[in-house]
Amino acid sequence: MVEWKISGGLTDYETALAFMEARAEAIARGEAEECIWLLEHPPLYTAGTSARREDLRDPDRFPVHETRRGGQYTYHGPGQRVVYVMLDLNRRGRDVRAFVAALETWVVAALAEFNLRGEIRAGRVGVWIARPDKPALPDGTPREDKIAAIGVRLRKWVSFHGLSINHDPDLSHFEGIVPCGITGHGVTSLVDLGLPVTMEDLDVALARGFAAAFGA
After folding, report:
1. Is 180 a catalytic residue?
2. φ and ψ at 79, to 5 degrees?
C-alpha cells in the first residue's frame, strides 16, 4: 500500500525534509508504508548536488537550502505542486534511470488529462512544453518552457525528494536562479498556458496516473 498525504497551506522546507528522511528510513526497515506527499512550500531555492554557484543569480532573494538530491538549482513556492515520492526501489527494481523515467511518464500522463503535451528531452531532466507561439532562440532552436522539475535522492534504495509541477506560481521568482542550469528556454505553468485548472484538478490527475507509472 502507498499512503497519500495532501497538506494544505505552506509546509516549511526543513519540516518536510525531516519527515522524508525519517519516513525513508522507516520504509527501508520495513516499518512504514511507501508514501506520496503533495504540498506547497513558501518561496525558496534548493541546490542539488550539481548546482553551480554562478547559477544562483540573486542569493538574497529567498532562503537557499542545500540538499543532496540530484540536479541543480530549482525554485519552490506557492502555486507549485511539490510531490515528494518515498518509494521502495528494493521492491520496485533497483534501476535509477527507470525510476526517473517513470516519474517523467507520470507527469506527462497527468498533463495529458488537460490536453497538454508534455515532452521529455535528452540531457534535460524534467518535462517541457513546446512554445511555437514564442520566438525561437538565437541559434534557431525552437523555444520550449519547463513545466515540471525532477530531483531525487536514494538511501538504502528508498527514494525521497521527487518532483514539482507549476500550477500557478509567480514565474518571476525563477529569475533568481538559472533553473536546473539551463539557459535560453523558459519556465511556464498550467495557468500561464491559459488552462483553467485548479490545484485539486492536478492532484486528481496525479492520483489517476500513478498506478500506470508505478503500479499499485
Report:
1. yes
2. 90, 0
pTM of this structure: 0.93
Q: Identify the CA nearest to 102 among candidates 114, 117, 89, 115.
A: 89
CA proximity to 101, closest of 154, 155, 150: 150
Which helix or strand (DSSP H or E) is residue 146 part of? strand 144-155
Pairwise CA distance, residues 110 & 59, whole Å: 33
Which residue from 61, 46, 47, 9 is spatially nearest to 176, judged by alpha carbons?
Answer: 61
Q: List pLDDT tens digits, range 78-120.
A: 999 999 999 999 999 999 999 999 999 999 999 999 999 999 9
Q: How many Cα atoms within 13 Å fall on the side-chain side of residue 100?
A: 20
| Helix-helix angle 96-112:199-214, to 10 degrees | 140
CB 121 within 8 A of CB 131: no
Q: Report d(CA 201, CA 72) in Å as an integer.
A: 29
User: C-alpha grid cell for residue 119?
Assistant: 515532452
Beta carbons of 174 and 147 less than 8 angstroms apart: no
Catalytic residue among 103, 180, 190, 206: 180
